Amino acid sequence: MARVAELLSMHRRTLNRRLDACGTTFQTLVEEVRFGIARQLLEDTDLPLSQVAATVGYSDVSAFTRAFRRWSGPRRGRGAHPAARR
Fold first, then answer.
1. CA 36 – CA 69 distance, rounded (Å)
2. pLDDT tens digit string along 14-42?
3. pLDDT digits over 31-79, tens only?
4. What is the dihedral of CA 29, 52, 50, 73, to 10 degrees?
5. 78 vs 84, which has greater pLDDT?
6. What pLDDT score does 73 carry?
7. From residue 64, how far is each of 25, 48, 59, 70 by CA, in Å?
């Protein structure tokens, strides 16, 4: 978060206040981006799950799987997408 605030030329607390005013948190934004990237990789590539997990910042596939289920519900993922069943 400190790096993002620096890139935006503001103090970390200012960034926190502005996100709070928008009704969100930095962690929520990070999770949304991770989910979007993971979903796209699962739907559009044949990358192994371990590589998708690593790409979005998870060193452990089981932790990534739990996070993905939290983001999308238990029935979503590579097997749920028609193109992934090839």
1. 13
2. 999 999 999 999 999 999 999 999 999 99
3. 999 999 999 999 999 999 999 999 999 989 999 999 988 888 766 555 5
4. 60
5. 78
6. 73
7. 20, 13, 8, 10
Residue in this structure with the two tokens 């926190």, named with its chain if needed: 16
Residue recorded with tokens 């989910």: 35
The residue length of the chain stands at: 86
The CA-to-CA distance between both ends of the chain, in Å, stands at 39
The Cα 15–Cα 19 span in angstroms is 6
DSSP 8-state class, residue 82? G
| Alpha helix stretches (DSSP H) within 1-86 | 2-7, 12-21, 26-44, 49-55, 61-72
- For residues 66 and 31, the answer to whether their CB atoms sit within 8 Å is no
Task: Name the token pair of 22.
Answer: 């928008």
